[in-house]
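can u pls check wat happens w/ flavin-adenine dinucleotide
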Amino acid sequence: MSISKISVVVVGAGPAGFYAADALIKKKLNCEIDIIDFLPTPYGLIRAGVAPDHQTTKKVIKSFEKTALNDSCHFFGNVHIGNEISISELKEIYDAIIIATGAESDSLLDIPGSSLPGVIGSASFVGWYNAHPNYINLNPNLETNNVIIIGNGNVAIDIARVLVKNRNEMAESDIPEYALSNIENSSIKDVFIFGRRGPIEAKFTNVELREMGELKDAVAIVRPDQLPLEVGSLSDAREQRLKEKNLKTLQEFSKNKITDARKRVHFPFWYKPVKILGTQKVEGIQMEKTFLNNGILESTGEYLEIECGLVIPAIGYRSRPVKGLPFNDTDFVISNDNGRVDMGIYAVGWIKRGPSGVISTNRPDGVLAANHIENDFRDGGSKPGRTALVSMLEKKNIKFVSFEGWKLIDKAEISGAISGAPRKKFEKIDDMLDVVFYK
Ligand SMILES: Cc1cc2nc3c(=O)[nH]c(=O)nc-3n(C[C@H](O)[C@H](O)[C@H](O)COP(=O)(O)OP(=O)(O)OC[C@H]3O[C@@H](n4cnc5c(N)ncnc54)[C@H](O)[C@@H]3O)c2cc1C
């Protein structure tokens, strides 16, 4: 005997949301799955976070598209949960709610001067060069010789690379023209990627680090005296291999000279930010030298000051609370027990476990949520789901974008691309909606 349909809504159409939908489909439960996003476009940080010159990484959307086109799935773009529709309204019409809203804010750089204009968190900066509609008017000050990036992860590397690549190197990317021409016409010469710890502790992956050795106009600079001769022995063999590769790459970089190229990306290790200098806007940064003492980071009292007009902390992301659901203010995640928030409410991806890992790291969260739903709804569901959502949206006069609507946006972006580029992204939500509703 087949069970009655379980109505499921996924809030957030990023990787975590799609993996959850896919896991439900694979279970062959009798589910109707609606995926909601506040943007008219799906795919979350794949579209708005992954660097515009890393198009191969973005190809994962092909498998998410298959999920979206499954008969049981429906996409509702341009619908903001929390603003336009509340969680309690969703509870009334859906058996199960999966929260997949990611982590959109920056971790705060809590030092004097960090609120001065010219300090721009990586979430906003990356959103700006990826044409996320919330950040297109960011207008960062690129009239500066020096840019300081704080943090030793791949996001820091992405930002540095985008800032020093030339137009030709970005020709096959989908960077918006406003960002490309601002960068091209900027006075940036030196980008510093500062790490509080050393090269062994840095979180760069090797492919991304090596890319810094392949730039046309810029050279990677590492001080040889900051590099240990070897990694030492680590407990995890995979970690050991990665660190050895990174050290080898950094050793190669340490042979480069600052006169080798027009621009430079410096990797100063063992410095922590102390103070942003300036009165009306950023004029410089003070860093303090650090060292590790039995695994604890300590300061030396030795300072370094660099003049700059732009500081980009790339020190991690934070989730925002979802109105109506419990939030853990210490870890900045939705309060959950192994993905379960409450009966019928589940969390996946960055809002569930914090901002770590690559795209596929979100997959097991989806499987977990699907397992919970399978267990919790053994007798099937009872709530109306999609039909009730559509009438609620119509009653509230909310113009929602279906997956077919997104495909119209997609098609227009692809056909608007200049040669070599994969697409020319729309920058404003209204322009996207025009394509869908006034085609
Ligand atoms: C700068 C950057 C670069 C990265 N590069 C790579 C890379 O090269 N390779 C890689 O494997 N991983 C990369 N990652 C990691 C990867 O992007 C994440 O693991 C993944 O996107 C997290 O998925 P998520 O679904 O939890 O969140 P997200 O991708 O952020 O998706 C969340 C979705 O929820 C929507 N949303 C939020 N709030 C609401 C609301 N209230 N109502 C409706 N919708 C809402 C958002 O619009 C968004 O679409 C990168 C991350 C960043 C930040």
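Residues 178 and 428 are 13 Å apart (CA to CA).
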